[in-house]
Amino acid sequence: MLDLDEVPAAPGALAKTTGCVGIASCRRRCILLRVAKSQGMKAAADFGSPELNPRKKMNMKSTTRKLLLSLGLLSLVLSAQTPPHYQVDPTWPKELPDDWVFGRLGGVCVDSHDHIAVVDRRDITKEEAETSHPAPPIVIFDAEGNVIQSIGDPNVVPASIHGCFFDKENNIWVGGNDDGIIQKYSHAGKLLLQIGKRGVFDTSDGTRRGKSLNASRQQFFLPAGIAIDPDNGDIYVADGYGNRRIAVFDKTGKFLRQWGRQAAPEEARAGTPGAFAQLVHCVTIGNDELVYVCDRQGDRVQVFDKAGNFKRNIWVRTGTPNLPDPRGTVWWIAFSIDPEQKFMYVMNGRNEQVHILDHETGKILASFGRPGHQIGNFIHGHTIAFDSKGNLYVAETDWGRRVQKFKVVP
Asked: Which domains, from first to last, does the chain contain?
């Protein structure tokens, strides 16, 4: 059996092992030698040598076929271990209509038609307001980046709108990290469901300044994210800027269950299940039917089953040496579009990078992005979402105030 760990990666090691020059050619020859060794093909070790006599060359034909087949299969293994590479699309999106200007973008999500929605807090500067107007609360683009629709009444949508999610019927769900509600809108903009009363909070006195109760069956305390179970329509809410819980409702808005609480500092460091360092910043349901939750200042993704039973931690320890991490690393998560969801993507707003993790092991395989205002950079990179073609969209809040598209590089 071929042991990939035996294949030298460094150019010097490759040259020493194979006697060739150049990383690519060395690695190919090195792999070939390993395959030959694993199959007991002694003669194949001299493959490509000008010293082979005609008889040996003829005998090598069948060996070559076997080697090429082995290398073809090996190539599939190697490619499966390699995450995609991305580059920013500078042409996306197109200019906004009229005199619209985005404020902080609280979320990005994609429907089944590859329409991309962003939720806008509309908090433009005084200087911007002199010459322009805030964009609507929910703006929808087509795949080419043209604005095709806008919905939402600023006086009705959740205050400081945060996060968005399209369900399988293409209804859009939103919350707000300065409010106590979540809402469901049709694609045409009709308000279909609201859980909670606007401006009322799950606190000791019902106000934003009250003490968190982490318990209400009708209200939230600054909810951050929403995921809808595609199997039964259950609503999972990351009630996480004021509270520290995942709250679950059925599709009609009836409360079902909850889990989560505030972590003590030592619990954050120990990775205690169901204890959140500070913000419960996102929730996502994987194809494996597990629930993935952003424990932002805990620098980890906590994984549960749908009943709230803890399964494992996925750590993203690229932040501060000690926990809790004041800004945190795990801001939003998404999965690759293959059915197995081989890769997990984490928006790390602390380091202003998107990390690509092996879903199974949780190992960071690659990252892209850096702090900055140029295209492809991030300032307060906040939320991420994929379309059906594997393009990745990143919405920036605070002083970033834009959405960017990243395409897979062939």
From this structure: 4-80 (no CATH), 85-409 (2.120.10.30)
